[in-house]
């Protein structure tokens, strides 16, 4: 099993255990690949749910640039909902899992087809 496949399995387990979500493995794989080399860097692989600068990066680089969403208050509400779903007290929020949840939350799965 490749390192990426191991990480995807870890992300799927995180979705199930911490978010109560059974992952669409094809979508999770595509979202993970879309994260690029960041998934292999300990710091870049996670998202800090309490760091406003980090959340702004998620909003601008992922929601607006990647998913093509308009910059509205709905984006902040979506990020907040995903952070709540993942668990605010959970220190290790994997970027690929956050991006997966945001993709599903905003109904943008077709971006990865």
Q: How are the elements arranged and paired?
A:
Layout: H1 3-19, H2 25-34, E1 46-47, H3 52-66, H4 73-86, E2 93-94, H5 95-105
Antiparallel strand pairs: 1-2
Helix pairs in contact: 1-2, 2-5, 4-5
Q: What do these coordinates show?
A:
The chain is mainly alpha-helical. It is 59% helix and 4% strand. The longest helix has 17 residues, at 3-19. The mean pLDDT is 95. The chain contains five helices and two strands; from the N terminus they run ααβααβα. Helix 4 crosses helix 5. A two-stranded antiparallel sheet has the order 1-2. It has helices at residues 3-19, 25-34, 52-66, 73-86, 95-105, and strands at 46-47, 93-94. The chain has one domain: Orthogonal Bundle (Recoverin, domain 1). It is globular and about 40 Å long.
How far do the termini sit from each other?
A: 24 Å
Q: For the CA atoms, what is the radius of gyration?
A: 13 Å
Q: Under CATH, the topology is which?
A: Recoverin, domain 1
Residue stretches low in confidence (pLDDT < 50, at least 5 long) are none
**Within the largest sheet, what's the order of strands?**
1-2
The major sheet is characterized as: 2 strands, antiparallel
Please name the CATH architecture. Answer: Orthogonal Bundle
Structural class: mainly alpha
The DSSP helix count reads 5
Question: In percent, how much strand structure appears in the residues?
Answer: under 5%
The percent range for helix content is 55-70%
Kindly provide the name of the CATH class.
Mainly Alpha
CATH superfamily: Jann4075-like
Averaged pLDDT, please?
A: 95
The ordered string of helix (H) and strand (E) elements is: HHEHHEH
Count the E strands.
2
The outline comes out as: globular
Query: How many domain modules?
Result: 1
